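Lab notebook: predicted structure, single chain.

Context: the supervisor wants predicted structures on file for every construct in the current expression panel, including those that have not yet been purified. This is the next one on the list. No modifications to the sequence; it matches the entry in the shared construct table.
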Amino acid sequence: MTAQPEAPRRRGDKQRHAIVSAVRELLEETGVRWDDVLTQVGAYGDPGRDPRGWTVSVAWTAHVGDVVLDAVGGDDAADAEWHAVADLPDLAFDHNRIVSDALDRVQSI
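Prediction complete. Output recorded below exactly as produced.
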Protein backbone atom coordinates (compact mmCIF):
# COMPACT_ATOMS: atom_id res chain seq x y z
CA MET A 1 0.00 0.00 0.00
CA THR A 2 1.30 3.46 -0.89
CA ALA A 3 0.74 6.39 1.43
CA GLN A 4 -1.07 9.28 -0.21
CA PRO A 5 -1.23 12.96 0.79
CA GLU A 6 -4.50 13.96 2.35
CA ALA A 7 -6.13 16.96 3.94
CA PRO A 8 -6.20 17.11 7.74
CA ARG A 9 -9.31 15.77 9.48
CA ARG A 10 -10.58 17.19 12.71
CA ARG A 11 -13.84 17.52 14.56
CA GLY A 12 -15.09 21.07 14.27
CA ASP A 13 -15.48 23.39 17.21
CA LYS A 14 -19.08 24.58 17.10
CA GLN A 15 -18.08 27.82 18.84
CA ARG A 16 -15.53 28.76 16.15
CA HIS A 17 -16.01 30.27 12.69
CA ALA A 18 -14.83 28.07 9.80
CA ILE A 19 -12.11 30.50 8.74
CA VAL A 20 -10.68 30.61 12.28
CA SER A 21 -10.56 26.81 12.25
CA ALA A 22 -8.86 26.85 8.84
CA VAL A 23 -6.13 29.20 10.07
CA ARG A 24 -5.65 27.08 13.20
CA GLU A 25 -5.43 23.85 11.19
CA LEU A 26 -2.96 25.37 8.74
CA LEU A 27 -0.70 26.33 11.64
CA GLU A 28 -1.09 23.03 13.51
CA GLU A 29 -0.60 20.78 10.47
CA THR A 30 2.09 22.71 8.57
CA GLY A 31 3.62 25.29 10.91
CA VAL A 32 2.48 28.04 8.49
CA ARG A 33 1.13 31.13 10.24
CA TRP A 34 -1.28 32.95 7.89
CA ASP A 35 -2.95 36.25 8.72
CA ASP A 36 -4.02 37.39 5.25
CA VAL A 37 -7.06 36.59 3.09
CA LEU A 38 -8.31 33.01 2.72
CA THR A 39 -11.01 32.28 0.14
CA GLN A 40 -13.30 29.31 0.62
CA VAL A 41 -13.34 26.91 -2.33
CA GLY A 42 -16.07 24.61 -1.12
CA ALA A 43 -17.22 21.95 1.32
CA TYR A 44 -16.90 18.27 0.47
CA GLY A 45 -18.91 15.69 2.36
CA ASP A 46 -20.25 13.12 -0.09
CA PRO A 47 -20.97 9.78 1.60
CA GLY A 48 -18.14 7.33 1.01
CA ARG A 49 -15.56 9.96 0.01
CA ASP A 50 -13.29 8.78 2.83
CA PRO A 51 -13.17 5.05 3.62
CA ARG A 52 -12.26 5.83 7.25
CA GLY A 53 -15.71 7.29 7.88
CA TRP A 54 -17.97 10.21 7.07
CA THR A 55 -15.92 13.39 6.86
CA VAL A 56 -16.61 16.92 5.69
CA SER A 57 -13.63 18.89 4.42
CA VAL A 58 -13.69 22.62 3.73
CA ALA A 59 -11.06 23.75 1.21
CA TRP A 60 -9.49 27.20 1.08
CA THR A 61 -7.11 29.12 -1.18
CA ALA A 62 -4.75 31.99 -0.46
CA HIS A 63 -2.70 34.23 -2.72
CA VAL A 64 0.85 34.10 -1.38
CA GLY A 65 2.61 35.94 -4.21
CA ASP A 66 6.39 35.70 -3.90
CA VAL A 67 6.26 34.82 -0.20
CA VAL A 68 8.19 31.65 0.60
CA LEU A 69 6.32 29.54 3.15
CA ASP A 70 8.18 26.73 4.86
CA ALA A 71 5.85 23.87 5.73
CA VAL A 72 6.66 21.11 8.20
CA GLY A 73 4.47 18.25 9.38
CA GLY A 74 2.87 18.82 12.74
CA ASP A 75 0.06 17.60 14.98
CA ASP A 76 -1.28 14.53 13.13
CA ALA A 77 0.45 15.25 9.80
CA ALA A 78 3.61 13.16 9.39
CA ASP A 79 4.96 15.50 6.71
CA ALA A 80 4.03 18.63 4.79
CA GLU A 81 5.39 19.56 1.37
CA TRP A 82 4.64 22.07 -1.38
CA HIS A 83 4.16 20.77 -4.93
CA ALA A 84 3.70 22.51 -8.23
CA VAL A 85 0.14 22.01 -9.45
CA ALA A 86 1.47 20.48 -12.66
CA ASP A 87 3.50 17.95 -10.67
CA LEU A 88 1.23 16.74 -7.87
CA PRO A 89 1.76 13.29 -6.37
CA ASP A 90 -1.13 10.81 -6.25
CA LEU A 91 -3.80 12.28 -3.98
CA ALA A 92 -6.10 10.43 -1.61
CA PHE A 93 -9.88 10.13 -1.84
CA ASP A 94 -11.56 13.00 -3.74
CA HIS A 95 -8.66 15.41 -3.39
CA ASN A 96 -8.09 15.63 -7.17
CA ARG A 97 -11.59 17.12 -7.40
CA ILE A 98 -10.81 19.54 -4.57
CA VAL A 99 -7.60 20.70 -6.29
CA SER A 100 -9.49 21.08 -9.59
CA ASP A 101 -12.19 23.16 -7.88
CA ALA A 102 -9.51 25.29 -6.20
CA LEU A 103 -7.82 25.96 -9.54
CA ASP A 104 -11.17 26.92 -11.08
CA ARG A 105 -11.83 29.25 -8.15
CA VAL A 106 -8.42 30.93 -8.39
CA GLN A 107 -8.70 31.38 -12.15
CA SER A 108 -12.12 33.03 -11.76
CA ILE A 109 -10.82 35.75 -9.42
